[in-house]
Write a structure and sequence with these properties.
41% strand, Naphthalene 1,2-dioxygenase Alpha Subunit, Chain A, domain 1, 2 domains, 4-stranded antiparallel β-sheet, mainly beta, binds fe (ii) ion, Rieske Iron-sulfur Protein, elongated, binds FE2/S2 (inorganic) cluster, 7-stranded antiparallel β-sheet
Length: 281
């Protein structure tokens, strides 16, 4: 165990359990907030999540198979539906005592969201909306998931503090640390977190800006980040040729823009699953 004390993990919140497409190949095992969970799709296509432990002899349910009625344990064939009820018990009568714990799940915008806390508090209105995820026909996109050995708040800290840009990302979106020192930063509180907008006026376009948009002179460049507690960060960044009104109208044609959705689902205190989705012009 680390001797670095972190805040306790937040249980009453929605977290991303998986990409939707991850369930297409069968059940998957994932550790979330210190618990072993199996995520799967029932025969009717509905996503569900159960404790990854059969109530019969304790075998991991993720070793079983998704079947029409739910998830079938790979040992003696018990089947559990998405509510955790045992609906098939080969050779015997099913018993309510054979149930396993189920977690509220909502599939939305290509993600399977899971609530690990008190089910009575699982308000789906709290799921973070990122409307750009419904517009993949308009934007190029790239997505990934990484399992990272660190407390998830280190990722939030990294994303909400861009003073590292000048030193870390020198071959892509960074470099010229002195120009980052001069960035104008406006920070505001939001209902569930904080947002900042960072402007770098008449700055040197970083290598990836030059590569993507072909900038030849200085750029007016912005980074807008919003933290939505406990685990999401929404990002909008880009730039336009200096002196062309980009600050007044960031969405004007030309230049470049990128939108990212970051989410850090704690596996436990010292590990997290990093989901990100990047859309760019
Ligand atoms: S251990 Fe799962 S059915 Fe026996
Ligand atoms: Fe970075």
């Amino acid at each position: 165990m680390s001797d670095f004390a972190m805040e306790p993990l937040v249980h009453d919140a929605w977290y991303i359990g998986a990409w939707s497409h991850e369930l297409d190949e069968g059940p998957i095992a994932r550790r979330i907030l210190g618990e072993d969970v199996v995520l799967f799709r029932s025969g009717d296509g509905t996503a569900a999540a159960l404790e990854d432990r059969c109530s019969h002899r304790g075998v991991k349910l993720s070793l079983g198979a998704a079947v029409e009625q739910g998830l079938q344990c790979g040992y003696h064939g018990l089947v559990f539906d998405g509510s955790g009820a045992c609906v098939v018990n080969p050779g015997e009568r099913t018993s309510p005592t054979f149930c396993v714990r189920a977690f509220p799940v909502v599939e939305r915008q290509h993600f399977v969201w899971i609530w690990m806390g008190d089910p009575a508090l699982a308000d789906t209105g709290l799921i973070v909306d990122f409307a750009w995820h419904d517009r993949t026909d308009e934007w190029n996109f790239h997505y990934a998931r990484y399992d990272i050995a660190a407390n998830y708040m280190f990722m939030i800290d990294n994303l909400m503090d861009l003073t590292h840009l000048g030193y870390v990302h020198t071959s892509t979106i960074g470099g010229h640390p002195g120009e980052h020192d001069d960035a104008e930063l406006t920070t505001t509180r939001t209902a569930r977190g904080a947002r900042y907008v960072r402007w770098m006026m008449e700055s040197t376009p970083p290598p990836s800006f030059v590569k993507v948009a072909g900038f030849e002179g200085k750029v007016d460049r912005w980074q807008e980040f919003e933290y939505v507690a406990p685990a999401s960060v929404l990002q909008w960044g880009g730039g336009h040729d200096s002196g062309t009104g980009g600050r007044e109208n960031r969405e004007k044609p030309g230049g470049m823009a990128v939108r990212l959705f970051h989410h850090a689902t704690p596996a436990d205190d010292e590990n997290f699953h990093y989901f990100f989705w990047r859309l760019y012009t």
